[in-house]
Amino acid sequence: MAINLELPSTFDPTVERTHLAAEHIFRPISRKYDKGEHEYPTELDELGKLAKQARSKEKESDGDTAAAADAPSHNGPNMRALISAREMSWGDVGLLLSIPGQGLGNAAIAAVATEEQLERFSGVWAAMAITEPSFGSDSAAVSTTATRDGDDYVINGEKIFVTAGSRADHVVVWATVDRNAGRAAIKSFVVPMTTEGVTVARLEHKLGIRSSDTAVLRFENARVPADNLLGSPEVDTKKAFAGVMQTFDNTRPVVAAMAIGLGRAALEELRRMLEEAGHAIDYDKPAAAQHASVCEFIRLESDWEASWLHTVRAAWMADNKEPNSSEASMSKAKAGRTVTDITNKAVEVGSTAGFSETMLLEKWARDAKILDIFEGTQQIQQLIIARRVLGKSSADLR
C-alpha cells in the first residue's frame, strides 16, 4: 500500500504566508535582536495582528473539516500550528516565540479549557509558568499554591524560565490546590499580568533565543476568579494531573516542529557550503563512497526526515483525539537531538565562517540547544517513552 507523505494542499496558504514572514521579516532582523537582548521587536506588532486574523479564518476552516460527516480523520489546528512553527523557525525561533498573541500558555488553554473558557480567553496572549527554582523537568514537584478564598483563588510562589513572561498580557500558572493531595491537586490558572501581586522579578540573559524574553515571575497573594482555573476544579487522583499534562501532548510536537524548521535552515546552509567546496551530494551513490562531509550530510538529512515524520504523526493524532503522549515525546526527543547535531556539524564544516558572526550558523547552534531542553529535556522524554513502551507508571520507573 502506498503512503502519501505530502501535506494536503489546504495547508499551502499557511506554508506560503508563514515562510514569507520568516524570510522577509525574521531573517533581516535576526542578528539585530540577538545582539539587542531584551529589546522588544516592534516589527512583530503588525505580524501579530495579521496572524490573529489568519487564525480566526483557519479556526472556521478547521471546524468545518472536523464536522464533515464523510471525514473519519482530519488535519486540524495541531497540524496547522506544526506547519507554522516549522516555517517560521526557519527564519528565527526567538522571534517566533515573540509574536504577540501566540504564547505557550495559549496552547495550555486550548488543551484543557472548557468551551466557556475558550471563548473568554480567545483574545489573550498567554505565557506559561511551570518551572520553579526548586525543580526543573519534574512538573509534579510544583510548590506554588492556589488557596480557595470565597469566589477567588489566592496564588503564592515563584516561577522561572517563563517564555514571554514580561511581554504577554496573561500567564497560565501551574499551582497546587492541596499540598497533601500530591500531583492530582496540580491545576493551571489563567492570571492577568495586571493582577495585584504579580511581578516580573528579572529577565534572564541566555545562550540562545535572545530575542525572546525569559522572565522570573513572583506571585504574592495574587487573587484570581475561581473560574480562571482551567478545566475541572475537582481533585481527581486518577485524572487531574493527566489533564494538566495534556498540555504537553499539544506543545511538544510544536517544539519539535521548531527544531525541524531550524534544522532545515542549517541543512540548506550546509548543503550550500559543501557544493561550493566542490562536494556535490549524489543520492544515487552509496553514502560511504562519497566525501566524508557528504556522507555526514546524508546521515543528518535522514535523521531530519525521521524527525519530521515523528512530528507529523503526533500532531495528526492530537487532531483526531487519539492519545499521543508517546508520540509527542518521541517527536520532541528525536527533533531536539537532531537539530543540535545538525547545527553543530554546520558550524564545524563552516570553520571560521561558521564560528563567527559573519553568518547565522553560530546563532542557530546557540538557538538549537533550548529546543532539546524546554517542554521537557531529552532525558525526560526518554523516560516517558520508556514508561509507555514498558507499561510502567511514574512510581515504577523513575
Mean pLDDT: 91
Radius of gyration: 21 Å
Shape: globular
Spans of 5+ residues with little confidence (pLDDT < 50)?
none
| Number of E-type strands | 7
Structure class: alpha+beta
The largest beta-sheet arranges its strands as: 2-3-7-6
Structure write-up:
- The structure is a single chain.
- The protein is an alpha+beta fold and 398 residues long.
- Helix content is 50%, strand content 13%.
- The chain contains eleven helices and seven strands.
- It has helices at residues 12-35, 44-67, 77-89, 93-96, 104-112, 115-120, 240-276, 292-319, 325-355, 361-371, 378-390, and strands at residues 126-129, 145-149, 152-163, 170-176, 186-192, 198-203, 214-225.
- The chain is globular.
Features:
single chain; 398 residues; alpha+beta; four-stranded antiparallel β-sheet; three-stranded mixed β-sheet; 11 helices; globular
Describe the structure concisely.
The chain is 50% helix and 13% strand. The protein has 398 residues and is of the alpha+beta class.
